[in-house]
Amino acid sequence: MWGYGDWAMVVASIVLGIFLIGGAWAVTRPQEEVMGHPKGLYMLFFAEMWERFSYYGMRALLTLYLVKHWMYSDGSANLIYGAYTSLVYITPVLGGWLADRYLGQRKAVLFGAVLLTLGHFFMAFEGDGSGYANDPTLNIFWLALALIIVGSGFLKANISVIVGQLYPRTDIRRDSAYTIFYMGINLGAAAGVLIAAYLGETVSWALGFGLAGFGMLLGLIVFIIGKPLLKGKGESPNPAKLKEKVAGINLEWLLYGVGFAGVAVIWFLIQYQSLVGGILLASGIALLAYVLFEAFKLDKEARERVFAMIFLILLMPLFWGLFEQAGGSLNLFTDRHVDKGGIPTTFFQSINPIYIILLGPLFAGLWQWMARKGIEPSTPAKMGLGIAQMGLAFIVMVWGAENFSTTGEAGAIMMPVLFLFIFYLLSTTGELCLSPVGLSAMNRLSVKHMASLMMAAFFFGTAGGNYVAGFMGSLMGEGEGGNMTREGALEAYWSMGLVALVVGVLVCFVSPLVKKLMHLDTLKDEEGDHIAGEAELGEPAAAGTHPAQ
Questions:
Q1: I want to staple 57 with a disulfide (CB 3.0 to 4.6 A). Which of 158, 192, 291, 319 is the partner?
Q2: Is 430:382 a contact under the CB 8 Å cutoff?
Q3: What CATH number was assigned to the domain covering residues 297-521?
Q4: Helix, strand and coil percent figures for the chain, each rounded to 5
Q5: Are the C-beta atoms of residues 383 and 440 closer than 8 Å to each other?
Q6: Candidates 1.20.1250.20, 3.40.50.720, 2.60.40.2380, 3.30.365.10; correct CATH number of 36-271?
């Protein structure tokens, strides 16, 4: 009597168990290294895997939870989703700065993991089911989101930086180490959806969110127990300063207090999503102005490289605004207008990380092979191809919905599930052409003293895209009674696809001009200009973004 969902959850649990047994075997070996890598890598692999398990398990449920449990309209749910995900991508900039300057990466990750564990457990308080207008438990929900946002700020990026610190800069194992770490990210993401989100959707919201919290707790325990495996990496740059008294309190504890104060600020902001959009826009303009101000102090070549980076950063809101429809409006569209064949809606959120696990190494090898043949596309051309594929994903899906849909129960018109798989395939190949390539470009082209600034600008572009995703989803939700209609959604997706396809082609067309601004022929290595974590292939919020010094 089992359905696809039951079998998939069992298979995901078995795969997860196999990796856990293998990880336990690796970290308990008497030797310092296992399979050519320090044991600290495997500890970080599992800590990050559990964090992604909890985050993606919760993310797959969020929009459905807002609509079905808290009874928000489609438009409001999408806007909340966009505000939440945009803040998740902004806070790592601040968390990384505090870690670089004061706390060190290990303590920042530890504090972030504590906040994340609390946040995911608070998500399990679902109230009496009377909706957001009548249930005061909604305040606990806002608190949960705020804890997760700030916790992500302290944990993300910093845990990736520690991976980089386990290896010397010239160590040839760095790329393979980040590939292993990156597999942990996407293993956790897929398992979180197939296990936690499945139980949340089919059994109870509290069970799904609670299991995500339990996964995060396991990640916290792994990180605490595994501290000796880090061999002193990721510690504070100035431990004595952390013990200095400020207003009678140790600086370290004062910084943790700042983190909790940040939770209070985010608790307020997340309830007023339009404020988040305004703050992002104003901050983005100010950051762009500052980047330009700093650029005009540089020599001609370095200045033109900054112009090239700005061009690439301005592509981020468009791509991520479309990509993140997957967790927002497309999640609702899948729930109502796709012939899923008995598969739970949340399961489709696992397709992207599974595709990344399968295709990530293939793309890494493809770029190297093309480079050896002298036919590798330039960075802007790759990013243009990524945007074009994102547009094509929507166009193919709408074409399939318009020409191959069938009539289901109660006369509902249902799109074949095949076109959803094609959508995720094209959006994933687009992501692999754009995201790791963009991260690499920020590092390669930045002068040393602007490295963190340019990566912060990259994060702002990504965060802006997440908010744009929610905003576009909210516009689609202005249909009948505040809910998205099938026709309205398909019309919007078609327009999004055409715009992205045209922009992607235009970017490819102007890529030679942008490449010329990059002055690749005169780039050279400088001592100390590498960013810890630069080699990671993973999702935008996962990359190391701060100079090791």
A1: 192
A2: no
A3: 1.20.1250.20
A4: 75, 5, 20
A5: no
A6: 1.20.1250.20
> What six digits make up the tokens of 357?
């696990």
Q: Which residues, at least 6 apart from 217, have a Cβ–Cβ distance to it below 8 Å?
A: 117, 121
How far apart, in whole angstroms, are the C-alpha atoms of residue 76 and residue 270?
A: 12
HSE of 288 in the Cβ direction (CA atoms, 13 Å)? Answer: 16
Mean pLDDT, consecutive 10-residue stretches, the chain (549 aa), reads: 79 86 82 82 84 86 90 89 88 81 87 92 86 88 94 82 75 71 82 88 88 85 86 84 85 91 93 88 88 88 91 92 90 90 87 86 81 86 94 96 85 90 94 82 76 77 89 76 82 94 95 90 61 48 43
Segment 500-519, tens digit of pLDDT: 999 999 999 999 999 999 88
Spatial distance between the Cα atoms of 46 and 335, rounded to a whole number of angstroms: 32
In angstroms, rounded to a whole number, what is the distance separating the alpha carbons of residues 440 and 3? 43
- The whole-angstrom separation of Cα 98 and Cα 251 is 12
Question: φ and ψ at 250, to 5 degrees?
Answer: -55, 140
**How far is C-alpha 478 from the geometric centre of its chain's CA atoms?**
27
Q: Which of 540, 463, 548, 545 has the alpha carbon at shortest distance from 185?
A: 540
pLDDT digits (tens, 9 = 90+) for 210-253: 888 888 888 888 888 888 888 888 888 888 888 888 888 888 89
Residues 6+ apart with CB under 8 A from 342: 3, 4, 5
> 42 burial class (0-12, 13-18, 19+ CB within 10 angstroms)?
buried
- Specify the pTM: 0.86
Print the SS3 string covering 155-195: HCCHHHHHHHHCCCCCCCCHHHHHHHHHHHHHHHHHHHHHH
Token pair of 290, please? 């500052």
3-state secondary structure of 96: helix
Answer whether 36-271 and 297-521 agree in fold. Answer: yes
The predicted pLDDT at position 267 comes to 94
User: How would you classify the pairing of strands 413-416 and 338-339?
Assistant: parallel
Do residues 406 and 497 lie in contact, with contact meaning Cβ atoms separated by under 8 Å?
no
Which pLDDT score, from 0 to 100, does residue 544 have?
A: 42
CA distance 166 to 359: 26
Kindly report the backbone phi and psi dihedral angles of residue 483, in degrees, each rounded to the nearest multiple of 5, phi listed first: -115, 150
Residue 36 pLDDT:
79
8 Å CB contact between 502 and 382? no
Where are the domains positioned within the chain? Answer: 36-271, 297-521
